[in-house]
Design goal:
about 475 residues; three-stranded parallel beta sheet; nucleotide-binding; 15 helices; EC 3.6.4.13; Rossmann fold; alpha/beta
Length: about 475
């Protein structure tokens, strides 16, 4: 049978399409086979790793150092709730852990999960990501957990613990417990939108309610709802809070269970400003920057040499001051919070200090004298000073290093704030040599990991839309 040219071309085209379709099917089949092979290979590796991790843990149980560390961990308040916590975790996708300061939730809860999976023979499948609001907390907690597990430093060989923060990472293929900042975990969404491969997400300090933290909760809630309806990848979420806001997060995640632990704090003595004045016999001169009179003397002069004062916080008092035969009226600042009857048991010097102090100003001379007093009269322990900003930190560090008590090359006066490198931030956790005092001057960055109440002073930059400029706000 003879075909014309057009019929021949059509026949060839159909045949080519059949061959091309066959190639596509074969390609898809090949890709599926490769994917199944890779998945099968990963499964075999994870199973083998699970067996190895269980053997390593069993052998580590007999080490004297590890046994001693386990005793210390068992003494933490959160340890009493381990079995209850693991039972709830098996039955629920989301749990809120509410623990008071010092209960051990930050270091112990992730380890409860890791140890349970290893002992159950599925440690190779474990992949826990624990978020911290600040990078210094992520790094310091990772190092602490590594020490408790008798493992090398985070991210090194034979260590299951790692960390990842901005511009610094210590992790490898063996990492089963990763501590990171909230931003790092959110960045993973660009390549892993369902958090595939992650078994547990632990959100620590969830009560801080940052923008990134709240967005992470939205993402996690969406993932939990999707996996509940589809029955696919079972991600477990743990929210850890140090406040009574736990029920708020429980409601947001469909009334998930809440488990609470008591805290364990060290004894703390509270001294107020007047107590410090009295204890160190401090004198506040009228020309000190922390004195209200200093503020008045630096106000802009009005017409005819009169003082133009617009002080909303303090009040002025006209007192008679004499020099020889001349008598003049002068202005004196009085602290609006001062009440003589409230300080009957204090000395006259303390009364004068309280009367003239400007409470809106940080008294660096007082801080220097107080740190020196503590160094002389208390033999052991580090000193932690909270200040509202980097400028204040630099000023106090300069004053202390210029002081003969702390000016030597072996003295440890360490700043701590967000602009320091990771290596410089880690210095504050190192132990100084014997008879060397460590003084840490920090912003509220130290609150998360050190858990000590700060001074109540706060400074932050805010953008004013009306003025179209950045301004610094003090509270």
């Amino acid at each position: 049978m003879l075909l014309n040219k057009s019929e021949s071309n059509a026949h060839t085209s159909v045949g080519a399409q059949k061959v091309e379709g066959k190639d596509v099917l074969e390609s898809i089949s090949s890709e599926k086979h490769k994917s199944m092979t890779a998945s099968s290979g990963l499964l075999v590796r994870q199973q083998a790793e699970s067996v190895l991790l269980k053997k390593e843990m069993e052998s580590k149980m007999n080490l004297p150092k590890y046994m001693k560390l386990m005793e210390a961990r068992a003494a933490l308040p959160i340890a009493k709730l381990k079995d209850q916590f693991l039972g709830l975790l098996r039955e629920n996708d989301v749990i809120v852990v509410c623990g008071e300061t010092g209960c051990g939730k930050t270091t112990q809860v992730p380890q409860f999960i890791l140890d349970d999976m290893i002992e159950s023979g599925v440690g190779g499948f474990c992949n826990i990501v624990c978020t911290q609001p600040r990078r210094i907390a992520a790094m310091s907690v990772a190092e602490r957990v590594s020490d408790e597990r008798c493992e090398p430093s985070p991210g090194s060989d034979n260590s299951l613990v790692g960390y990842q923060v901005r511009l610094d990472s210590a992790r490898n293929e063996q990492t089963k417990l990763l501590f990171c900042t909230t931003g790092i975990l959110l960045r993973k969404l660009s390549t892993n939108k369902h958090f595939e491969g992650i078994t547990h997400v632990v959100v620590d300090e969830v009560h801080e309610r940052s923008l990134l933290g709240d967005f992470l909760l939205i993402v996690l809630k969406s993932l939990i709802e999707k996996q509940a309806s589809s029955g696919c990848h079972k991600l477990k979420v743990l929210l850890m809070s140090a406040t009574v806001d736990a029920n708020l997060f429980s409601r947001y995640f469909g009334y998930c269970p809440v488990i609470s632990a008591e805290g364990r704090t060290h004894p703390v003595s509270t001294l107020f400003l007047e107590d410090v004045y009295e204890k160190i016999n401090y004198y506040l001169p009228s020309d000190s920057p922390a004195s209200g009179n200093f503020m008045l003397s630096n106000k802009e002069k009005g017409p005819k040499g009169s003082s133009s004062v617009n002080n909303r916080r303090g009040k002025k008092s006209l007192v008679l001051s004499s020099w020889g035969d001349d008598s003049t009226l002068s202005e004196e600042y009085i602290n609006p919070n001062y009440s003589a009857c409230s300080y009957n048991t204090y000395s006259e010097r303390t009364h004068q200090n309280l009367k003239r102090v400007n409470e809106d100003v940080v008294d660096f001379d007082l801080l220097e004298d107080l740190v020196c007093y503590i160094d002389k009269n208390y033999p052991a322990g580090a000193i932690l000073v909270f200040l509202p900003g980097i400028t204040e930190i630099d000023l106090l560090v300069d004053k202390l290093t210029a002081n003969y008590q702390f000016g030597g090359p072996s003295d440890w006066v360490l700043p701590l704030h967000s602009l320091l490198s990771s290596a410089d931030q880690r210095k504050v956790f190192q132990s100084p040599p014997e008879n060397i005092r460590k003084v840490i001057v920090a912003t509220d960055i130290a609150e998360t990991s050190i858990t000590i109440d700060e001074t109540g002073r706060h400074k932050e930059n805010r953008y004013n839309l009306q003025l179209m400029k950045l301004s610094s706000s003090h509270t």
